Amino acid sequence: MAASAATNPLDIVKVRQQLRTQIPGARSNAFWTVGVEMARTEGVLSLMKGFSASMLRELIYSGLRLGSYEYFKDVLYDRSRGALSREGIGLKVAAATVASALGSAIANPTDLVKVRMQAYYPSGSPFKNMRHAFRTIWKEGTGPTASSGAGSVLGGLRALYRGVNPTTMRGIVLSVSQICSYDQAKQVLKRREIMQEGVGLHFVASMFAGLVCSITSNPVDVVKVRLMNDSGREFRGVSDCVRNIVTREGPLTFYKGFGMCWARLGLHTVLTFVVFERLRLWFGVGAL
């Protein structure tokens, strides 16, 4: 939550970049241009849109993926009966996959609300606050064609879980690359006696992890953002969204907003792991 609070302005600029559909590489889509334009036309506070939804998302998503990572490492290690090494990358990948799939799937409604609140609306945002955004999106699935009762509830849930597949996929890709690269970098640096446990080691390992997860997750993030903001149901699903992006805008579109993605995820990753390791120390829990 601390990391997301600090990087919210970078996150919203990244979302705005990924929702634009002009030719990839156009100057008007540069992250500094988008940020300055937002501050000038919508006010400086527009860079903090979706803040409440972002905090709720991190509480659920990162709470589960980081909080359960070591639990799943222990469980999978015991179940493998020695087939998976404690120091091996296979155990880390497996544990991070399960933990992140759980966290990202459950947190999808908060992620969707965050994206909708951060998107650009020419006539002004249709959402008064996070609660109003949740209600509005719920009603998208309970319109005139939806039956009352259980059918209506199911429709509302479907609206809130729009884009859950790419969200879960992105969560797995990001968390596996982020948590595993951090864990592995720490392990290698300590084993080779290059660095010892401490803030310096946490900073260096998280800087490396931030670059790795930015490269691996940006394409999935673009698809996720496009689908979540697709209130008009332009895309039939993940494959249709990918096909439309490639044919209309070209494959480089999957790295639209990469500079801001790296800036945000790099800072987010450093803050996440440095704060995480400090909290573990203060509460008497061993380092990751």
TrEMBL record:
Xref: InterPro entries: MCP_dom_sf, MCP_transmembrane, Mito_Metabolite_Transporter
Membrane topology value: Multi-pass membrane protein
Repeat (Solcar) residue spans along the chain: 1-75, 87-188, 197-282
One Pfam family in the UniProt entry: Mito_carr
Origin: domain of life: Eukaryota
GO cellular component term of the entry, any: membrane
Record keywords: Membrane, Repeat, Transmembrane, Transmembrane helix, Transport
Localization: Membrane
Main location (coarse class): membrane
Family per record: Belongs to the mitochondrial carrier (TC 2.A.29) family.
The protein's name: Mitochondrial carrier
Source organism of this protein record: Daedalea quercina L-15889
